[in-house]
Specification:
With 373 residues, this protein is α/β, with parallel strands linked by helices. 37% of the residues lie in helices and 20% in strands.
Amino acid sequence: MKEKGEYFMEGNIACAEGALKAGCGFYAGYPITPASEVMNHLSEELPKVGGRFIQMEDELGSMASIVGASWTGLKSMTATSGPGFSLMQENLGYAVMTETPCVVVNVQRAGPSTGQATKPGTGDVMQARFGSQGDYELIALSPNSVQEMFDFTVRAFNLAERYRTPVVLLADAGVGHMREKVKIREDVKTVKRRRPEEGEREFFDTDREDHVPPMPNFGEGEELLVTGSTHLGDGTRDTSSFEAQDNLVRRLVDKIEDNREDIEDWEEHHAEDSDLVVVSYGSMSRPARGAVRKARKEGHNVGFFRPKVIWPSPEKRLKKIGENSKVLLAELSLRGYRMEVERSVPSENLHIFDRLNSLPTVDKIYDNIKEVL
């Protein structure tokens, strides 16, 4: 684990270092391009700080393992890319239903299927939101720099522990394989999950305003029933009651929705009163931001908006922007964030610049800005 200081490193290594700083104690994974460096680095560094690393037979087992490790009290993580993320969806839904804090890193690549393993893409945005079955909410962060690969990994662990939920770090190959300067601080803030107080027995229900119940560890003497089936506050299965299903699922959704102010995060520049606002995220947001700077230098009234947290989406802010300005969505996908922005921005104000396989130049996006204006 790196000491305090400035380093020149790859995005995936910064992600692994962020996990170590956040207190990750367990990693299970399977190698896959372009995410393998996360696993390789943690395989060497985790044992040095008393953590455990295991290479699994596949991504299904990886996801199952980090769920199990979390219930022993360890902060746990896995990393993958598109095909592996697809295999994780069933157990990701299980982690939501059992309120298991863990971090899943998806370094996205060009798909579908095997696609182009070494090329960036952001086509997994909707999969991160709706990949598993049923009604649920989870949290997904979108870094656009090597520094954010470090910082957002720390925040992903903190959000997972704070809200007892899986959190997805939705990176992409552009950011994962980028090399930049990273500043590692000594005073990295970390969060620990809420533990039961004496007499608390409801580990899957709560009257707390934040909707987050306490979480004990296996092996500490508590009566623990953990199931992906509908359950009552003490964990007992109840697969026939309307009230049990309604109460449980509404609380799982509400603990994200009602805490949006704490979770949502975005970057914006001149988005309040511009003729056009460019919306972008991930590695694509870097040339998009450069194009906005160029447009402003040329005298165009253009703003910029980047969601740092993709889910829950900053829908109210997007709607406000779309009411007053034209919006140009620039992304490395045909359908990544498009449907969410279409839902928030009037169709007459929305314009799309989509790209597959590689990042465009600043000038290419600038040409699209001029065309829309």
